[in-house]
Amino acid sequence: MGAVSSIGGDPEAIFGALCAGRGGLAELRAFDRGRFRATAAYEIDDRPEPGGDEPGRATRWLCDAIRQALDGAGMDHDLTGVPVLVGTTFREQRSVELWWRGQAPLAPSGLYFGPALRAEFGCTVTYTPASACAASLYGMAMATDLIALGQAETVVVAGTDALTESAFGAIDRVQNRVPRALRPLDRDRSGMLMGEGAVAVVVRASGGHHGPVAGRVRGVGLNCDGHHATRPSGPSIGRAIRDAHARAGVKAGDIDLVMLHGTGTPLNDATEMAALAEVFAGRATLPYVTAIKSMTGHTCGGSGLLSLVTALLAIGAGRIPPIAGLAAPIEEAAGFGLPIGCVTGAELRTVQIDAFGFGGLNAVAVVEGAPR
Questions:
Q1: What Pfam families does this protein's entry cite (predicted)?
Q2: Domain ranges of the chain
């Protein structure tokens, strides 16, 4: 596994920050704050100079995360013939914005990730699922299909996105309130703030000797309901969750923790929790839920896979990161385990990961820890 975000440069550093409740929120650095109502974001602080920006950052993080994942899996860096699936919302849209403003040159080959992956890793098979904020879990579903169908023994799944001025501005204008921080499940939540980062995992067919194993993907459920451009559909989310459980061969009672999509928007949080309450109805004890966007911001295309990596680390460590900023939980979250601080000594076996995108793009994965 590999990852880069505003709170750390690798999965262990990110997980440590999450468990410590340390977020990456800071004053907006990428562009002129005076143009927007919201003035904060969860950015990676790697620009060459304050107030400046440079092209190709999403691609650079992507390559870094893939290198980390290959090293962790004990693989060399030659991915010739290995499918690489990169979930993204914006690709290199920020590079286009800089070119349009006359601040940086732009080669057409820099608009997508294939050329860079070919130069860095010898990649000959690349795909770019662009399923909004569910993109990297859509990539995971495609990876499991490729393996199940015998099309590949090994697949690299990744996600990456950098902050873009056009997307930040669009979100800033459509939200009714101005968020100062992303506060999932809190009654005083005001909306979503964007984050940056990349994440990658190596997925292999089970069985045989493959080197280090972080965990197992049991199944991924998908749908796209087209219910509304931005408003999520509770019944459709419920169907995606049940589909994931069925593919994973688990029941609702087997889920110990849910990694929420948890964007901190009024509709997403209420709809997601209501759907979970319906799916988990009848359980004597409802599972824990947590939302790492409270500390990473919304990392868009890679957000689902970043939650999946966090889930596997949580299983291995027996720790559940808190939901930062949660002071007054919404009514729909009643009965669920809400980690106000980091939960330690947690017995976690099976974790569900939610990722939902605009237009009704829903993806849910179920994972378990590495064999002991």
A1: ketoacyl-synt, Ketoacyl-synt_C
A2: 2-369
Task: Tell me if residue 365 falls in helix, strand or coil.
Answer: strand
3-state secondary structure of 222: strand
Fold of the domain spanning 2-369: Peroxisomal Thiolase; Chain A, domain 1 (3.40.47)
Cβ–Cβ < 8 Å for 295, 23: yes
Residue corresponding to tokens 């069925």: 246
Gap between the terminal Cα atoms of the chain:
19
301 near 161, Cβ under 8 Å?
A: yes
Mean pLDDT over the full length of the chain: 95
Q: Name residue, tokens 């403003």.
A: 101
Burial annotation 130-159 (CB, 10 A radius, 16+ → b, else e): bbbbbbbbbbbbbbbebbeeeebebbbbbb
Which of 31-35, 75-79, 119-123 has the lowest average pLDDT? 31-35
Cα of 349 vs its chain's centroid, Å: 20
Q: Which amino acid is at 84?
A: V
Relative orientation angle of helices 11-19 and 303-317, to the nearest 10 degrees? 70
pLDDT of residue 303: 98
pLDDT one-digit tens code per residue, 305-342: 999 999 999 999 999 999 999 999 999 999 999 999 99
pLDDT band, very low/low/confident/very high, at 212 (cuts 50, 70, 90) = confident
Length of the chain (residues):
372
Q: Which two tokens stand for residue 299?
A: 């990392």
As to burial, measured by CB atoms within 10 angstroms (0-12 exposed, 13-18 middle, 19+ buried), residue 223 is middle
Strand order in the sheet with 215-224: 215-224, 361-369, 350-357, 257-259, 288-290
E strands in the chain: 2-5, 26-27, 40-41, 84-87, 126-127, 154-161, 197-204, 215-224, 257-259, 288-290, 350-357, 361-369
Judge if pTM exceeds 0.85: yes
